[in-house]
From TrEMBL, chain A:
This is Succinate dehydrogenase, cytochrome b556 subunit. The gene is sdhC. One of its GO terms (cellular component) is membrane. The chain crosses the membrane at residues 23-47, 68-86, 106-129. It holds the Pfam family Sdh_cyt. The lineage of its organism: Archaea, Methanobacteriati, Methanobacteriota, Stenosarchaea group, Halobacteria. GO terms for molecular function: metal ion binding. It comes from Halopelagius fulvigenes. It is found in: Membrane.
From TrEMBL, chain B:
The lineage of its organism: Archaea, Methanobacteriati, Methanobacteriota, Stenosarchaea group, Halobacteria. Pfam families: FAD_binding_2, Succ_DH_flav_C. Keywords: Electron transport, FAD, Flavoprotein, Membrane, Oxidoreductase, Transport. Its main location: membrane. Residues 431-442, 460-470 have a biased composition (Low complexity). Transmembrane segments: none annotated. GO terms for molecular function: succinate dehydrogenase (quinone) activity. Residues 406-474 are annotated as: Disordered. It comes from Halopelagius fulvigenes. Residues 443-458 have a biased composition (Basic and acidic residues). It is an enzyme of class 1 (oxidoreductase). This is succinate dehydrogenase. One of its GO terms (cellular component) is membrane.
UniProtKB/TrEMBL annotation, chain C:
InterPro entries: SQR/QFR_C/D, SuccDH_FuR_B_TM-su. GO terms for cellular component: membrane. This is Succinate dehydrogenase. The chain crosses the membrane at residues 20-39, 59-82, 94-111. The lineage of its organism: Archaea, Methanobacteriati, Methanobacteriota, Stenosarchaea group, Halobacteria. It comes from Halopelagius fulvigenes. The keyword Iron applies.
TrEMBL record, chain D:
This is Succinate dehydrogenase/fumarate reductase iron-sulfur subunit. One of its GO terms (molecular function) is 4 iron, 4 sulfur cluster binding. Residues 1-57 are annotated as: Disordered. Residues 200-274 form the 4Fe-4S ferredoxin-type domain. Belongs to the succinate dehydrogenase/fumarate reductase iron-sulfur protein family. Residues 1-23 have a biased composition (Low complexity).
Length: 130, 633, 125, 295
């Protein structure tokens, strides 16, 4: 057909307001997955300071751990990891064909559980930085 | 111009089966359809397909039931062909993978249906038509048969001999709804009409919005007689706002009908003291309308069908889909409140006259499915007999059009000298309006280009004028194409006038008021006057949407003419037939009159002045004659 | 019809491995987090402690396996995501090998670190 | 059931006669009055429908026409439609078209959720117009063409791509063991028919395809409806093992089942309640299983 109106990118991605549970789960899982790979690379980079000398390693870790931002980022990392794990489990069940009818509920459960775990572990994470 | 051996118009069950058969017979076939095939209304059929496939059943019994159900107005050769071939065709569907419901032993399930002496209705849940339609479309995809979908066929390209029986059909003209292109389709071997029902003639119907009787009207105007048009089946329980069917199952399980005053009117007013709500479709429909007409209807429109007393458990178990239908389409919770219902148009028994091979009297023109009348249903169709009709006669028409040898037909088509002429006293002239001026909207124009409307006109350029018979087949298609282009340009060019929606609503209302399950002379005449007036207004019709892209306004405007011609034909037949047979009831004559009326009502367009005549019914079957009996169960 | 799709790739294996690694990671990642943030607090980490753990043969192999699975899982996930977003043709091939290279680098670097802790020097790097 | 039993027609006429009483006339008079009142009401409604009317629904409808000046830039038009109980979005659109603007264009046919022509984007959800009660929606009711499809005009979208995907999975029954007797069926167990039952209900409305973000991003992705169509045959025991293998190969290709990221929107919007995600997931497992066999 020669003439037709293509509503373009906005059409494709501008509908987030209308996303349903499964789509949000997908978006979050993607996001957390990427953050985790990113972290994995940085993590190994930081740890490799051990190759220089034991002391370099210990000081790097100690300095980093004494910074509040790093602690906060760690909490963030925990949130990301916990959500990815929980939703990952949800997806594994979906792949096995278990509980598909309550997929939206299990997504909300992952969210709530993530929140709870993160809040509960904040004290442990920030302990000693102040 | 497009060219194929066989052109099938319409892609419902009948059209798809015809196309597959024509291809099997070696033809290059194409389907032209105003809807994509899977959108066809065959998909709405729920009940099932009658086929004598089991031990203890026989095609003879099926034929007997069908003939009895038809109130002895079916033609035996067609009825017997249907019943003999239905088993094989039904199994063919099964072999194509159709998902029929199954018995424990893996064979297909059958259920009892009204008017059948054996439970021979083969079904697939409550969605037999959907499964049938999709299974056949799948075969179409497999075979790579070409489909021109969303092409609206507007006119047949037929030669213009004075006698319709000498005419030949060379193709069709169609309008591409998506692009606005008008094009000719030349059919080297034949055109098969499979355009389905005509429910949109009424304002309340179980039929789809696209069931506007196009095929019947086009064939009629091209010269093919149309048969038994007055026989329209009404279903007593349809939802008022949409016409969605509420199956007989509700009443079967014990559902009760109440009027506005909460009276169980089937008994209280003695419409059917024995059977009550379970009386036959026509009896219940008439009872409901009597209630409404006498002021006891709810909102003067409908009655209540109540199933609450059956209890939630039983309803959920047996009638769950009914709950969904009432909820989705009427916003009513059947567990909490009674459901509104009223009678709705359901099926047209009549249609394009064909023989049992699907051929019309015009050479190269065939018809199958609901638009055709080989006459298997006579004056009343049995539930479950339409789907087998699609596959049996669709296939026959397909083979025949593609040139496969067929047994000679016993039904003779066309108007023959020896057959009785009919007379009917009409308050206004039926047929084409002959007002002066440049009006192409209402029909064709003379082939010689003159547009003097005082002379008879016809669609498809079939006016008898010398010289043009020398045209080549392509020439005829070309000429029809020109005429159609002109009409479309005219409609789009006109800037003011009246819109089709208004005329359509008026005709539909009048038909529902006057040519419904109740028919009496005064009402029928009123309908004819209304139709006449609508025809006159249609002369001034215009299309407000000027776009060439997906112009549904234009399509509906063209459909409107078909609605007019078909509505008039129904009314003329109803006015002529003074008896009560099958679905046709006349106040003036409330019994069946075999001495006088054991014959088909035939109507020929006759270039704009409809002519009524009668053809005798063929009751002699292969090995027995079906003697008319009282139709009681 | 189906011809359009004649060149198919058996994506099924990678899909399956993504699930298998995920299932493995659930356990190990949880263990990892728990051990390094709750049992031992991160700010108390020293080379010596890490070293002490790594010298245990089982812990060492678990961590290497952890690294390999996480890398596969993460990188494969990223690659899938890009392919799903419409990455095709030569760019796809390029990205694929870049990712493979990056993963190798990561794994090698990770093992070297672990070796440093564990005091293993047999490997050439 | 009869048309010929004489008592019945007598009953009918006697019922009619005895009712021609004073009461009956009174009824008829009331009925005429009511009809007139309704007619007046209707005219009133048509002449002065205003946004604040209690019994009207406001529709915001997407309009676009490549040829008509003023419609080439997409816009939303407001229509105020008088409401009656049971009115669906499709009814409202038809009313607006027949009474206000005959160029308002949308596909529709059956009005009963079986033809699949009127899947629309209604208040942010893919729904069938004919199966959506106005009373279930917040006002104004926003009606748009299906997202992720090219708009032909107003609410009509180009369906070709959807049809291509449906056709790409060899959507027809294939078997090697038909019974020799043309009058005998090829048996199928009840369980098996039950298993494929939901998948056979698809009406090709494309709501699922429109709701799937993956399908939006990858034009070659078969999409939930086509995969479901393939499921219908793959799981049918009447097709043999070799054909199943062949079907799995089609499904496993790059743009096949693996593309699905289990977003579930397809299952959420399907008007026929087909568990699409479940079917896709089952096929993924089938694919893995059949691959394991060859490892
Ligand atoms: C609600 C309902 C339930 C039913 N249940 C049963 C049942 O249980 N058992 C039974 O036996 N029967 C049943 N029937 C009757 C039966 O379904 C129909 O008679 C039958 O499906 C008609 O099929 P068809 O192929 O003739 O037409 P349709 O399926 O209506 O197809 C008509 C085709 O023609 C095309 N077309 C029309 N006009 C044009 C044009 N001008 N140009 C191009 N194309 C055109 C359309 O696009 C469409 O593809 C039922 C009917 C209804 C309405
Ligand atoms: C701990 C348990 C984990 C579980 C259960 C898990 C589960 C999953 C699953 C099931 C997927 C596939 C989603 C899909 O294809 O539909 C996935 C994707 C992904 N995972 Fe994990 N994962 C875990 C840990 C990790 C870790 C440690 C990383 C980082 C290295 C990671 C990075 C990713 C990435 C990048 C993706 C791809 C996301 C995308 O689609 O864009 N995951 N995960
Ligand atoms: S699967 Fe459901 S949503 Fe998708 S096309 Fe079929 S009926 Fe429509
Ligand atoms: S929405 Fe799309 S991602 Fe899968 S579950 Fe449905 S196809
Ligand atoms: S009109 Fe047919 S599905 Fe809605």
């Amino acid at each position: 057909m020669s003439q037709s109106y293509n509503r373009g990118l906005i059409e494709d991605f501008g509908r987030w307001r209308e996303f349903s549970a499964g789509m949000w789960a997908w978006v979050f899982h993607k996001f957390t997955g990427w953050v985790l790979v990113g972290y994995l690379f940085t993590h190994i980079a930081v740890l490799s300071t051990a190759l220089q000398s034991p002391d370099a390693y210990t000081t790097t870790i100690r300095t980093l751990e004494s910074l509040l931002v790093v602690r906060i980022m760690e909490v963030g990392l925990l949130a990301v990891a916990v959500f990815h794990i929980l939703n990952g489990l949800r997806l594994l069940f979906v792949d096995l064909g278990v509980g598909l009818e309550s997929q939206d509920k299990s997504f909300y459960a992952s969210l709530i559980l993530t929140g709870a775990i993160v809040v509960a572990s904040v004290p442990t994470f920030v302990a000693g930085v102040f | 111009m497009y060219e194929h051996d066989v052109i099938v118009v319409g892609a419902g069950g009948a059209g798809l089966r015809a196309a597959i058969a024509a291809q099997e017979a070696g033809a290059d076939v194409a389907i032209v359809s105003k809807l994509h095939p899977v959108r066809s209304h065959t998909g709405a059929a729920e009940g099932g397909i009658n086929a004598a496939i089991r031990e203890g059943d026989s095609w003879e019994d099926h034929a007997y039931d069908t003939m009895k159900g038809s109130d002895y107005l079916g033609d035996a050769p067609a009825v017997e062909a249907l019943c003999k071939e239905s088993p094989k065709e039904t199994m063919q569907l099964e072999h194509w993978g159709m998902a029929f419901s199954r018995e424990e032993d893996g064979t297909v399930s059958q259920r009892p249906f009204g008017g059948l002496s054996f439970p021979r209705t083969t079904y697939a849940g409550a969605e037999t038509g959907h499964q049938l339609l999709h299974t056949m479309y799948e075969q179409l995809v497999k075979r790579g048969i070409q489909v021109y979908d969303e092409w609206y066929v507007t006119r047949l390209a037929v030669t213009d001999e004075a006698d319709p029986e000498e005419r030949t059909c060379h193709g069709v003209v169609a309008y591409d709804i998506q692009s606005g292109e008008v094009s000719g389709f030349r059919a080297r071997d034949g055109v098969i009409l499979a355009t389905g029902g005509l429910g949109q003639v009424y304002d309340h119907t179980t039929n789809a919005v696209s069931n506007t009787g196009d095929g019947v009207a086009m064939a009629y105007r091209a010269g093919v007689p149309i048969e038994d048009m007055e026989f329209i089946q009404f279903h007593p329980t349809t939802l008022p706002s949409t016409g969605v069917l509420i199956s007989e199952g509700v009443r079967g399980e014990g559902g009760i009908l109440y009027n506005e005053d909460g009276e169980r009117f089937m008994f209280e007013y003695g419409y059917a003291n024995n059977a009550g709500e379970l009386a036959s479709r026509d009896v219940v429909s008439r009872a409901e309308l009597t209630e409404v007409n006498e002021g006891r209807g709810i909102e003067d429109e409908y009655v209540h069908l109540d199933m609450r007393h059956l209890g939630e458990e039983r309803i959920l178990d047996r009638l769950e889909n009914i709950l969904h239908l009432a909820e989705d389409f009427e916003g009513v919770d059947g567990l909490e409140e009674p459901m509104p219902v009223k009678p709705g148009q359901h099926y047209a028994m009549g249609g394009i006259e064909t023989d049992e091979n699907g051929e019309t009297c015009i050479d190269g023109l065939y018809a199958a499915g609901e638009c055709a009348c080989a006459s298997v249903h006579g004056s009343n169709r049995l539930g479950g007999n339409a789907l087998p009709e699609l596959i049996v006669f669709g296939k026959r028409a397909g083979y025949h059009a593609a040139g496969r040898e067929m047994e000679d037909a016993e039904i003779q088509t066309g108007q023959r000298g020896e057959w009785e002429r009919g007379e009917v006293d009409t308050p206004v002239e039926p047929g084409a309006v002959s007002s002066g001026g440049d009006v192409v909207a209402d029909g064709g124009e003379r082939t010689d280009g003159s547009r003097s409307s005082s002379e008879p006109r016809s669609d498809g350029g079939a006016a008898a004028s010398g010289g043009s018979s020398s045209l080549t087949p392509e020439g005829y298609v070309e000429r029809a194409l020109e005429a159609e282009r002109e009409r479309i340009e005219y409609l789009l060019g006109k800037d003011e006038g009246i819109q089709q929606a208004e005329i359509r609503a008026d005709v539909q209302m009048s038909m529902t008021r006057n040519v419904n399950v109740f028919r009496e002379e005064g009402g029928l005449k009123q309908a004819l006057r209304d139709i006449r007036e609508a025809r006159e207004r249609y002369e001034d019709v215009y299309v407000a949407d000027k776009s060439r892209t997906f112009n549904t306004d234009l399509v509906q405007t063209i459909e409107m003419q078909n609605i007019l011609d078909v509505a008039e034909a129904i009314t003329l037949g109803a006015l002529a037939r003074k008896e009560f047979r099958g679905a046709h009831w006349r106040k003036e004559a409330q019994e069946r009159r075999d001495e006088e009326w054991l014959k088909h009502t035939m109507l020929s367009w006759n270039d704009g002045t409809p002519e009524l005549w009668y053809r005798p019914v063929i009751l002699e079957g292969e090995s027995k004659t079906y003697e008319p009996k009282v139709r009681s169960y | 019809m189906a011809e359009r799709y004649s060149s198919f790739e058996r994506g099924g294996r990678r899909w399956l491995w993504q699930r298998i690694t995920a299932a493995f990671l659930v356990v190990v990642l949880a263990f990892h987090f728990f051990l390094l943030h709750f049992v031992h607090h991160a700010d108390e980490v020293t080379f010596a402690m890490s070293s002490a753990r790594m010298e245990t043969w089982t812990y060492y192999s678990l961590m290497v396996l952890f690294l390999v699975t996480a890398t596969f899982h993460g990188v494969n996930g990223v690659f899938n995501a890009l392919v799903n977003q419409g990455l095709t043709g030569s760019r796809k091939t390029a990205v694929k090998w870049t990712l493979v290279a990056a993963s190798l680098l990561l794994v090698v670097q990770g093992i070297r670190t672990a070796n440093a802790w564990a005091g293993i020097t047999i490997l050439p790097f | 059931m009869s048309t010929q039993v004489p008592e019945q027609s007598e009953q009918e006429s006697s019922a009619a006669e005895s009712e021609t009483s004073v009461a009956q006339e009174e009824r008829m008079r009331q009925k005429r009055d009511r009809a007139q009142a309704r007619e007046r009401q209707r005219q009133k409604e048509e002449s002065e429908i205003s946004p604040d009317d209690e019994d009207t629904y406001q529709l915001k409808v997407f309009r676009y026409d490549p040829e008509v000046a003023g419609k080439q830039e997409p816009r939303f038009d407001d229509f105020y439609v008088p409401y009656h109980k049971g009115m669906t979005v499709l009814d409202a659109l038809m009313y607006a078209r027949d009474n206000y603007d005959s160029s308002l264009t949308f596909r529709h046919s059956c009005r009963q959720a079986i033809c699949g022509s009127d899947a629309l984007f209604i208040n942010g959800r893919q729904k069938l117009g004919c199966k959506t009660q106005l009373s279930d929606l917040d006002e104004p009711v926003r009606v748009e063409p299906l997202p992720h499809a090219e708009v032909v005009k107003d609410l009509v979208v180009d369906m070709e791509h959807f049809y291509d995907q449906m056709h790409a999975v060899e959507p027809y029954f294939q078997t090697n063991d038909l019974p020799d007797d043309e009058l005998a069926e090829q048996k199928q167990s009840r369980e098996n028919r039950e298993k494929v039952k939901m998948s056979t209900r698809c009406i090709w409305c494309a709501a699922c395809m429109s709701s799937c973000n993956i399908a939006a991003g990858d034009n070659e992705y078969l999409g939930p409806a086509a995969i479901n169509k393939a499921y219908r045959f793959t799981m049918d025991e009447r097709e043999g093992e070799d054909i199943k293998q062949h079907r799995m190969e089609i499904l496993e290709q790059e743009h096949g089942v693996w593309r699905c990221q289990t977003q579930f929107s397809c299952s959420t919007v399907c008007p026929k309640d087909i568990p699409l995600t479940e079917h896709i997931q089952e096929l993924k497992r089938e694919a893995v299983k059949s691959n394991l066999k060859f490892w």
